[in-house]
Specification:
Elements lengths: L5 E5 L5 H10 L3 E5 L3 H5 L7 E2 L3 H5 L4 E4 L4 H10 L9 E4 L8 H11 L2 E4 L2 E2 L2 H5 L3 E6 L5 H11 E8 L6 H29 L4 H8 L7 H12 L8 H17 L5 H18 L15
Parallel strand pairs: 1-2, 1-4, 2-3, 4-5, 5-6, 8-9
Antiparallel strand pairs: 7-8
Helix pairs in contact: 4-5, 8-10, 8-11, 8-12, 11-12
Length: 291
């Protein structure tokens, strides 16, 4: 395959849209599909072609990139894409799908004659827009060179973990990483909520830990969003809650109790119930208060 490939992107939300845009900018032939058509149509100006169905989007594609809400949504879209799929095409599965969803997707790939690559990404809107995502990947050695131009367009670094995407090695690592992300977010939100309750200036808290072993760039990023009241979504409360539940379920399935992740899932549920579901996950801050 040439460096410039025909790439179908299924799912053009907060993450999928900038990924598709970067693929267009690097010269790939990009066709996009989204359940909400308007989100896909916004990419026409960047050179993408909008498809009405998943099957239309994947027709003739060398690579199919899925970036959807969860494993069920990815499996549903790829099942619908069946009539247009080309045997030998690479399925680059980047949805945060959890552990249990990988085997059914790998099975579907085998049935369709696709090469399955489990490739979730670390990063939110900003690194997606700048093409600096960290890609966690598992898939056969033979597709790594052909995929290089696609991975370089969307990510700053790719970490290959296994030659078998069907083992879910990349998705399992993604859950571990996300468990830390959610713990940091919850800790920041609760610390600032406690500061408010105790009439402590939250900036004094940030100043107290600044530059020491308790400091963390992510703390400042999420604290800044909370203090400014800017909850423009980089990673929504709804999606973070879904990921928290996937983490808890994965732990339970392997004999690991994850109290922090379970508590985070409950905080995200409360924040969503308060009307913050489509806001950035920093809005879990509001779960500390009755209204």
């Amino acid at each position: 395959m040439a460096d410039q490939l025909a790439v179908a992107v299924l799912g053009t939300g907060i993450m999928g849209a900038p990924m598709a845009r970067n693929l267009c900018r690097t010269g790939h032939d990009v066709r996009v599909w989204n359940r909400t058509p308007a989100k896909a149509e916004a990419l026409v100006a960047d050179g993408a072609r909008v498809a009405a169905t998943p099957a239309e989007a994947v027709t003739g594609a060398d690579v199919v990139l899925t970036m959807l809400y969860d494993g069920s949504a990815a499996l549903e879209a790829m099942t619908a894409a069946g009539p247009g799929l080309r045997p030998g095409a690479i399925w680059l599965q980047s949805t945060t799908a959890g552990v249990e969803a990988i085997a059914p997707m790998a099975d579907l790939a085998r049935q369709q004659g696709l090469v399955f690559v489990d490739a979730p990404v670390l990063g939110t809107r900003a690194p997606a827009e700048s093409g600096q995502l960290l890609i966690l990947a598992a898939g056969p050695e033979k597709v790594r060179a052909p995929l290089a131009s696609v991975l370089d367009a969307i990510g700053g670094r790719t970490v290959w973990l296994s030659e078998d995407g069907g083992t879910g090695a990349a998705s399992r690592l993604k859950l571990v990483c996300n468990s830390w992300v959610l713990a940091l977010t919850a800790g920041t939100a609760e610390a600032l909520a406690l500061a408010k309750g105790l009439d402590v200036d939250p900036r004094h808290f940030l100043e107290a830990v600044s530059g020491g072993p308790l400091d963390c760039g992510y703390l400042h990023a999420k604290a800044d969003a909370i203090l400014k009241g800017d909850y423009s979504p980089n990673f929504t409360v709804i999606t973070a809650g879904k990921d928290a539940r996937l983490i808890v379920e994965a732990g339970e399935g392997h004999g690991v109790r994850l109290d922090l992740a379970e508590a985070s899932a409950e905080r995200f549920r409360r924040a969503e119930a308060q009307g913050h579901g489509d806001e950035d996950m920093a809005a879990m801050y509001f779960a500390s208060f009755d209204t």
